[in-house]
Design a protein that fits this description.
This protein is α/β, with parallel strands linked by helices and 493 residues long. The chain has two domains: 280 residues, Rossmann fold (3-Layer(aba) Sandwich); 188 residues, Serine carboxypeptidase S28, SKS domain (Four Helix Bundle (Hemerythrin (Met), subunit A)). The protein contains 15 helices and eleven strands. Strand 6, helix 5 and strand 7 form a beta-alpha-beta unit. It is globular, with a radius of gyration of 23 Å. Bound molecules: 2-acetamido-2-deoxy-beta-D-glucopyranose (NAG) (5 copies). One 2-acetamido-2-deoxy-beta-D-glucopyranose binds next to helix 1. InterPro entries: AB_hydrolase_fold (IPR029058), Peptidase_S28 (IPR008758), Ser_carbopepase_S28_SKS (IPR042269). This is Lysosomal Pro-X carboxypeptidase.
Length: 493
């Protein structure tokens, strides 16, 4: 195993295109890029485009678009070596490629080729070019079913055109929404992938499947365990914001204390400010990694512990003192590198994720109920209100969500008839609330990583990794080997 030795950081970036004479099966690759990582692992891939149907499920719209995928075959053992296929999620695929060190670290021992496929409507895979987000007519083909069909068609094509790939077993890998896709990919296309690793994949965060409050409960637990009175003081801060923002002088004080780019002027602004803070705490819970990392944002090791140092007040603290602490805490997230000149409450840093596209998906198929009660969590009480959500979607996109569709099309909690899927979840990750956290059958396996945040197992190994994530990765590789062996057996019998 490689992953317990190497603290990996991209230290060298060679970002040049070089014109090799491309082998004929790569003729649809328009670019060839090389990236150096460090002395241990060479990190290079070709970046390709593939022409694919805009609509897989109807025959009227016969247009195609260019879908991007990245491919790394340095360690691939042909013929027949396995393919690890990343089912891209809501963002630029090179970002997921960068952040999925696990695949890069196991390629050699498995003799595997790596493919990272970009999800339609994100990054450079835009069905209607710059018009892709113009109105619901153009957005109509942004669904998880279309994305899975893209992946299936791409793999079929790679298998028939890449010499030596015809009998290669393919394993789907993904994290977060990409993990949901990898699980669903195995469910819907068992003819194409022999198994799937679905890391931090909340496939049950849909209406009626899990309690809507669990997500924020986990966020709260993360803060509660990370410092004295941390959750209690955040719970109290909402009222303190309300108190202080009730006067013009208070609003101005908050604007200065938080170094806001745009002054808070009224109650409405204060409301938006609270939402922004809430989102900040949620993001921190997702990326509470045991080492310094730059996933959504550059952050220190165990960032919530750092945040909580500023919130360790006794109950006698004044509103102003409390909010000063909250401001220092928020700046851990927004100003760790010391390079931010002001905090912008109309954006929460979320890396290269495609916010608008995901919002559209949430407004159509990916309806994920969330709620808070202020008692079991540290947030202001807010019920899940489907009607209000639906109305908001209708205003923004001119479409309404279908609350039950995801459960119908992907089986909800009734998935025992499927096989060869690993669901890994971090105990610190709020998304584990909607994840599969128990073993369903011998081949629908749940791996828990108690000290792990959002898909920690898919990241590069690190000296500070807790033993639970090392064990999880080892077990994942063990399952991969079994699936590959099964596939070889059935293809030769
Ligand atoms: C991927 O990593 C390289 C090297 O650090 C960086 O230059 C590039 O911007 C990253 N891509 C994305 C989308 O973050
Ligand atoms: C907010 O104002 C009320 C009324 O003055 C006060 O009782 C309370 O302690 C203040 N702060 C918080 C955090 O509730
Ligand atoms: C961010 O940190 C730098 C360095 O400490 C500081 O000069 C700057 O004012 C900070 N920015 C904000 C918005 O607080
Ligand atoms: C704040 O973020 C919004 C949304 O990204 C952007 O349009 C705006 O220009 C930003 N404001 C400042 C002052 O940076
Ligand atoms: C599921 O089964 C595997 C293999 O026996 C085991 O390692 C794992 O801990 C189990 N998962 C849970 C959540 O109990």
């Amino acid at each position: 195993m490689l992953y317990h030795i190497i603290p990996l950081k991209i230290i060298l970036l060679l970002n040049f295109s070089f014109k090799l004479s491309l082998p004929s099966h790569l003729k649809h690759c328009q670019e060839l890029r090389s990236r150096g990582l460090n002395e241990h692992i060479e990190f290079y891939f070709v970046s390709c485009f593939y022409l694919i149907q805009i609509d897989h499920f109807g025959f009227l719209e016969d247009g195609t678009f260019k879908q991007r995928y990245l491919m790394a075959d340095k360690h691939w053992k042909q013929p027949g070596g396995p393919v690890l296929f990343y089912t891209g999620n809501e963002g630029d695929i090179t970002w997921f490629c960068n952040n999925t060190g696990f695949m890069w670290e196991i390629a050699e021992e498995l003799g595997a080729m790596l493919v990272f496929a970009e999800h339609r409507y994100y990054g450079e895979s835009l069905p209607f070019g710059p018009d892709s987000y113009r109105g619901s007519k153009h957005l109509n083909y942004l669904t998880s079913e279309q994305a899975l069909a893209d992946f299936a068609v791409l793999i079929q094509d790679l298998k028939s055109t890449l010499p030596g790939a015809q009998h290669s077993p393919v394993i789907a890998v993904g994290g977060s929404y990409g993990g949901m896709l990898s699980a669903w990919f195995r469910m819907k296309y068992p003819n194409i992938v022999v198994g799937a690793l679905a890391s931090s994949a909340p496939i049950w965060q849909f209406p009626g499947m899990v309690p809507c409050g669990d997500f924020y409960k986990i966020v709260t637990q993360d803060f509660a365990r990370s410092g004295y009175n941390c959750d209690a003081n955040i719970r109290k801060s909402w009222k303190a914001i309300e108190n202080v923002s009730s006067t013009a002088a208070g609003l101005q004080w908050m604007t200065e204390e938080f170094s806001l780019c745009t002054p808070l002027k009224n109650k409405n602004d204060a409301f938006g400010f609270k939402n922004w803070l809430q989102e900040t705490w949620v993001n921190l819970a997702m990326v509470d990694y045991p080492y310094e990392a730059n996933f959504l944002q550059p952050l220190p090791r165990w960032p919530i512990q750092v945040v909580c140092k500023y919130l360790a007040f006794d109950s006698t603290v004044s509103d102003y003192q409390l909010l000063r602490g909250v401001s220092q805490a928020a700046k851990v997230y927004y100003n760790y590198t010391g390079s931010s000149s002001c905090l912008n409450t109309s954006q929460t840093a979320t890396g290269s994720l495609g916010f608008l596209g995901w919002y559209y998906q949430a407004c159509t198929e990916m309806v994920m109920p969330m709620c808070t009660d202020g008692v079991h969590d540290m947030f202001e009480p807010e019920e899940w209100n489907f009607q209000a959500f639906s109305d908001e979607c209708n205003i923004i996109f001119g479409v309404r969500p279908r609350a039950d569709w995801a459960g119908t099309v992907y089986g909800g909690k009734d998935i025992t008839s499927h096989s060869n899927i690993i669901f890994s979840n971090g105990g610190l990750d709020p998304w584990s609330a909607g994840g599969v956290t128990y073993n369903i059958t011998d081949s629908l396996v749940s791996i828990m990583i108690p000290d792990g945040a959002h898909h920690l197992d898919l990241r590069y190994s690190n000296d500070h990794d807790p033993p639970s994530v090392r064990a999880a990765r080892a077990l994942e590789v063990k399952y991969f080997r079994e699936w590959i062996k099964q596939a070889k057996k059935s293809s030769t019998s």
